[in-house]
Design brief:
90 residues, alpha+beta, 2 domains, 2 helices
């Protein structure tokens, strides 16, 4: 949001969008010289899509991590069963 607010030229009315149209920033100069500033969410769909992608990505990372831990434990158990001397502790 800060990047939207402070980039570009400073002359006249400004309308900027960012994050695939999700965030909006407007600056309108009134005739008396006062600048009205409005900032907010214009379209929540891109934010929701990004959130869903991140949740899915974190869930997949957690699943892979758990499976790798299970695989490691399985391999260590196999080493213990064969009587290996240098098996790391859990």
């Amino acid at each position: 949001m800060l990047v939207l607010m402070f980039t570009g030229d400073n002359s006249g009315d400004v309308h900027r969008t960012g994050l695939f149209g999700a965030l909006e920033f407007d600056a309108v100069e009134r005739p008396d010289g006062v600048v009205d500033i409005t900032a907010g969410v214009g379209n929540p769909v891109p934010i929701l899509v990004i959130f869903a992608i991140l949740v899915l990505q974190f869930a997949l990372i957690q699943i892979v991590f758990r499976r790798l831990k299970q695989r490691r434990e399985h391999l260590l158990q196999g080493m213990r069963d064969r009587g290996a001397d240098n098996v790391p502790a859990r």
